[in-house]
Amino acid sequence: MTPLQNLGRIDRRWLFLGMGILVLIPLLFPLHLPITPTATSIAFHRAIANVPDGSTVLMSCDYDPGTIPEMVPMTRTALRQLWEKHCKVVITVLWPGGPGLVDRVVAEVAAEYPDKKYGVDWVNLGYKPGNEAVMVLMGQGILTAFPYDYRGNATRSLPIMQRARDYADFPLLVSISAGYPGTKEWVQQVQARFHLPMVAGVTAVSVPEFYPYVQSGQLIGMLSGMAGAAEYEVLRKESGEASRGMDAQSLAHVFVALCIVLGNVVQRDVRRGDGS
Amino acid sequence: MKREVPLFLTAVIGTFMILSFFVPHQIVSVPAQFLQLTAVIVVACGYLLGGANVLRVNLVAIGRQEPGWLYKLLLVLSLLATVTIGAIEGPGFLDPGRRSRWIYDTLYSPMSATMFGLLAFFIASAAFRAFRVRTIEAMWLAAAALIVMIGRVPIGEALTRFLPVPLQLPVIQEWIMEVPQNAAKRAILMGAALGIMATGLRVILGIERAYLGGED
Predict the structure, then answer these.
(1) What is the CATH number of domain A39-238?
(2) How far is CA A40 from each of CA A217, B94, B165, rounded to the nearest angstrom?
(3) Is the confidence at residue B58, as pLDDT, over 60?
């Protein structure tokens, strides 16, 4: 048996160990690989920069703890950019596992801006079942769809909601989404129907699905996974979790690529051996 | 009547919802709003049914001591404990300091993130064992996958920075994503949209009746 054929019978736990080491090392000792923002990330940043100062923006955080490394850095950076423009932020969550996480993330960022007050500068409307039905219902009136916020306050009584009655009151929708319901449904049900300008932050695995919407102009900008979040941090001159995670992700991608190449070389050797 | 009434309701409500997309007048928008609210309530009731179904399926398996019944018991106990604690704590059950919040932060959140984190390890294993290039088409697919995989992360830029711009991996991967990938994806999206429209029409017209269950 050749060394290559031996390699083909490698215990997969060695592969797990290799992946673990390659992810761990750059997290402990950063490589500081260069991060160059792509056109879609620049467009995302520019779309928020172009929102009139002090306006009220709708932000839908449709994810749960499974996608924290990709979604949370985007959420943090977008909130910082919006609040530095003195924008008010109305937050919705259409994933049942998400409200607790999103509320914590928003509260952490809000703590960096002591002048930002709940109910005045931001509100978390929380989770509502119904997926697309909720999106369309919000078009009839945000207060109708969400009579109470995540904390149990009557939304009618909150100052921020006095200027957020329906989609026409928002200059931009920021969709941070990890799947269904998420960006695709917001485009189909809200952007196409109510013509609300929209940007999105999506998981890397779902990026191909959204390129047609970027090219058609339905998505003004897009952040693609953790790489997009890191590019956004670079554009904002922040050193956040996504930038730190990109070294680890780079090495993990190289390892997977090597596995594909090596796996095929081994297989080819095995087939040649069988043939002879 | 058991079939005619649901078919009639589906046809009327389906047509009405399509109409509400194009007609913003109150005559249409107010009933449409009522129907959308109803949909939200129906979906919420679906969660109750889902929960009841999880209990039923797992309790039966536990009673028969089927393989893995201990895990099912753990699932049922966790479900009951989470729902009970949430119900006792009432509104604001996820506020800081509440028990439900503790369950969310220390159990649900890390376990959910761990499940996703494990994917990286299994992808590496699957890439080594299963991604086989046996045809020319598979070779093109593998080449595109490798370029996109490396080109989308900073190391792709670092490795090919010395090359002319059109040959740098991030530039090539961007072209792959924007041109061939986008063309294929758009075709799939259009095909799917046409299929959804056709199915919707079949449901409204009563041709497609599978959703009613039972014999057609």
Answers:
(1) 3.40.50.10160
(2) 11, 36, 19
(3) yes
* Proportion of chain B above pLDDT 90, given as a percent: 62
Closest CA to A256 of B115, B138, B176, B126: B126
Which residue do the tokens 């923002």 mark? A37
What are the residue boundaries of the structural domains of chain B, listed by start?
Answer: 4-93, 128-194
**Per the CB < 8 Å rule, is B182 touching A212?**
yes
Q: Which of A182, A96, A57, A78 minimizes the C-alpha distance to B112?
A: A96
| Closest among B93, B35, B37, B86 to A129, alpha carbons compared | B37
- Mapped onto helix, strand or coil, the DSSP state of residue B99 is helix
Distance, CA of A226 to chain centre: 8
Per-residue pLDDT of chain A (276 residues; tens, 9 = 90+): 777 778 888 888 999 999 999 999 999 999 889 999 999 999 999 999 999 999 999 999 999 999 999 999 999 999 999 999 999 999 999 999 898 899 999 999 999 999 999 999 999 998 998 889 899 889 888 998 999 998 889 999 999 999 899 999 999 999 999 999 999 999 999 999 899 999 999 999 999 999 999 999 999 999 999 999 999 999 999 988 899 899 999 999 999 999 999 999 988 888 877 765
Site from A211, A219, A249 to mutate, B interface, most B CB atoms within 10 angstroms: A211
Q: Is A23 on the interface with B (CB under 8 A)?
A: yes
Polymer length in residues for chain A: 276
Looking at residue B179, its pLDDT comes to: 94
pLDDT digits (tens, 9 = 90+) for B99-124: 999 999 999 999 998 998 898 899 99
Nearest to B124 among A15, A103, A211 (CB): A15
Residue B216: is its pLDDT beyond 60? Answer: no
- Of the candidates B152, B143, B140, B150, the one whose C-alpha atom is nearest the C-alpha of residue B178 is B152
Contact at 8 Å (CB) between A239 and A233?
yes
Residues 6+ apart with CB under 8 A from B30: none
Pairing status of strand A173-177 against strand A88-93: unpaired
Which among B45, B39, B200, B199 has a CA at the least distance from the CA of A131? B39
- Element spanning A68, H or E: helix A68-84
Task: Compute the half-sphere exposure of residue B83: CA atoms within 13 Å on the CB side of its CA.
Answer: 11
Q: List, as ranges, residues 50-109 from B with C-beta within 8 Å of A.
A: 91-92, 94-95, 101, 104-105, 108-109
Residue A91, beta-bridge partner list:
A59, A124
φ/ψ of B3, rounded to 5, equals -105, -35
In this structure, are residues A201 and A74 in contact, taking their beta carbons and an 8 Å threshold?
Answer: yes
Paired residues of A90 in beta bridges: A58, A123
Bridge pairing between strands A173-177 and A198-202:
parallel
Q: Which residues contact B73 (CB under 8 A, 6 or more apart)?
A: B58, B62
